[in-house]
Amino acid sequence: MADPPGCCSTCATCLLCPYSCQWITAKKEKRKGLRTTKRDCSWFFFLFFVFLFTLVWLYFAIIILNDFHNFNEFIFRQKKLWLDWSLVLLIATAVLISYSSVLLVLALCLQLCGQPLKLHWVHKILLILTALVVAAAFTGLGVKWAEEWKSARVSLQATGPFLHIGIVGGMTLLAWPLASFIYRTRNTGLRVFLLLVYCAAMIALYLAPLGITSPCIMEENQLPPKPALVGHRGAPMLAPENTLMSLHKAVECDVQVFETDVMVSADGVPFLMHDEKLTRTTNVQAVFPERAALNSTAFNWTDLQQLDAGSWFLERRPFPTVQSLSPGDRNETTKQKIPSLGQALEVVKQSNISIMFDLRPENHSDYQNFVNVTLGVILQSGIPLQQVLWLPDGFREDVRQQAPGVQHVFGRKRLKDEKEPVLHVNLPYQDMSSEEIRQYRQDNISVNLYVVNQPWLFSVLWCSGVSSVTTNACQVLKEMKHPIWLLPSTTYFMIWIVVDCVSFLVIIWAFVLMKKCSHRRQPAESETDVLLTKINSLMQE
């Protein structure tokens, strides 16, 4: 197989070495008999598949970063081990995608240089392992974290137009090595098959925008108001969750609602705590080692006040933002105690924001008493009842009778035969489509979606018209004055047409240019074949 013009011997050797793991010189006599076989082609297609498979996983890995803190908490509850697993995920994914990318680039360059695609057996094993690892990751995602598949649907609304441009660009560049291979191969069937597959893929890509929808494809004057911010357990990236410091930080972030979780102590004092056990967010194992495994509700208020609810935040660093805390904030963090609901209500009332909470655990045998005790604290606090957003589903009628001004928030969508008015809903962001959000908005139903940390996700929900979002990153979303991107439909249409036309012209140019190169090689190859034939005849004589 002759080298095309412009592919020097040194370059070909440098490409062959890492791909084939052999130092093969590019001189013709040294590589005589080395040709790309059908098996080599099969391994190239497998490499291409592994690259695409890993690329899709990279996309998913970036998406699930929004919810990865929940995964960290889950691992801690199961294994009592705290680690920011998102770093492990990103590093592992970066290694896999880098490896498959380098191999693919080498293979494409070798094809352009007319070199044999002899993939070494070590690379073959590593590619199989890469495919198995990524398949295991997808399987684990589907089994343990199935709601993230819904996140992909939301993410495509944010990235669809740009993914389309990127894929069109990648497939356009693929025309060069494809044209080189087609003009070199003597297998007519394979040539026709590859051309048909490539043309079908490009036609599908050119028409893909017909099926791409995004709420952010709209005119500037159609953009809904910015969603209000709800502090998830306060401002947990800036202070220990469910503490008064976290509440104050949330107020500084201009949140309109403080979202928290309430439990009731053994002696009837409602307090702020998310987990059923105290091990993750307090030093209970050091203070009460023999009782550390008990439920939070088994402790009385005096015992709870002995616990440190802040130092864990500095030790475990649940978010990268912990490293940037000022010395004053670090000192204040170490002084945090578990706050009572009454203390939180006082801050909420003074700050003129609302409070929304779950009452846990809902399966407790004394849950009705928990409801009554909590209502008593709310009424005694003197907070305006319209600032209290009630989430628990149990004993709503008792709540309406004792505190008729409290606003009821439902953790479900409205029913067709709804018996009571639904004015506020609180749902995971994966559970509502843009169309449903718009419909609820038209019907004057307030929609709050949780947990929204990434600007791209906030932008999509903003364009959809959501009323508010619950977030860990209030300090980030507060600074956003506009969605990340907003395109009028006419502008997007023009981008679509221009990208498709440029891509088509580049593909035509690639095939024409590679055809000219192949014609230049043919005379040289013919003369060489004639010369070799004459030499062979003379030697036989």
TrEMBL record:
The chain positions of domain GP-PDE read 227-481
Which residue ranges run through the membrane?
41-65, 85-113, 125-143, 163-183, 190-212, 493-513
Domain of life per record: Eukaryota
Q: Which GO terms describe its molecular function?
A: glycerophosphodiester phosphodiesterase activity
Note the InterPro entries from the entry: GP_PDE_dom, PLC-like_Pdiesterase_TIM-brl
Q: What SUPFAM superfamilies does the annotation carry?
A: PLC-like phosphodiesterases
Q: Where in the cell is it found?
A: Membrane
Q: How does it sit in the membrane?
A: Multi-pass membrane protein
Q: Where is the signal peptide?
A: none
User: What is one cellular component GO term in this UniProt entry?
Assistant: plasma membrane
Q: Which UniProt keywords apply?
A: Glycoprotein, Hydrolase, Membrane, Transmembrane, Transmembrane helix
A Pfam family per the record: GDPD
One biological-process term from Gene Ontology?
lipid metabolic process
Query: Which family would the database say this protein is a member of?
Result: Belongs to the glycerophosphoryl diester phosphodiesterase family.
This protein is called: GDPD2 inositolphosphodiesterase
What taxonomic ancestry is recorded? Answer: Eukaryota, Metazoa, Chordata, Craniata, Vertebrata
